[in-house]
Design goal:
The structure is a single chain. By secondary structure, the protein is of the alpha+beta class. It has one helix at 93-116, and strands at 15-16, 22-27, 30-40, 43-47, 57-64, 67-79, 83-91. It has a single domain, classed as Thrombin, subunit H (Beta Barrel). The chain is 20% helix and 44% strand. The longest helix has 24 residues, at 93-116. The two termini are 27 Å apart. 16% of the residues are buried.
Length: 123
């Protein structure tokens, strides 16, 4: 019998970040800079020991090669001791294009790394 994959509420796929990308983010009475584990056009997962409630809002600021990207997000998933999954709720058009360019570059870096290390397992 064929097993069905668990249903995902995510509308777009995320990519594992093949290099260090950080985001400055903040919410009520808390600001932090965290490493991004994965990123997609609809959201991201940040590595942090800070726990926030599902539904908490956050302001996100990336400073990357493509230029500054500002977004608003909401916590959709919490992994205590590991990090937070956030959905983008607002990204202006100019920043949305920068985000698309960032995702394109990160996919290209990931593909180059896979070709350079064909025996490496995916994480």
């Amino acid at each position: 019998m064929q097993q069905l994959a668990p249903h995902s509420k995510r509308f777009s796929s995320r990519i594992r970040i093949p290099e260090d990308v950080y985001v400055c983010w903040g919410s009520v009475r808390y600001d932090d800079t965290s490493q991004v584990r994965d990123l997609g056009p609809g959201g991201l997962f940040v590595l942090t020991h800070m726990t926030k409630a599902v539904g908490a809002h956050a302001n996100l600021h990336f400073l990357v090669e493509e230029g500054p990207i500002k977004a608003e997000g909401v916590v959709r998933h919490v992994e205590p001791g590991l990090g937070l999954g956030l959905e983008f709720t607002a990204v202006c058009e100019e920043d949305r294009q920068r985000l698309a360019d960032l995702l394109k570059r990160l996919r290209e870096v990931g593909h180059r790394n896979c070709r350079a290390h064909p025996g490496a397992s995916a994480q």
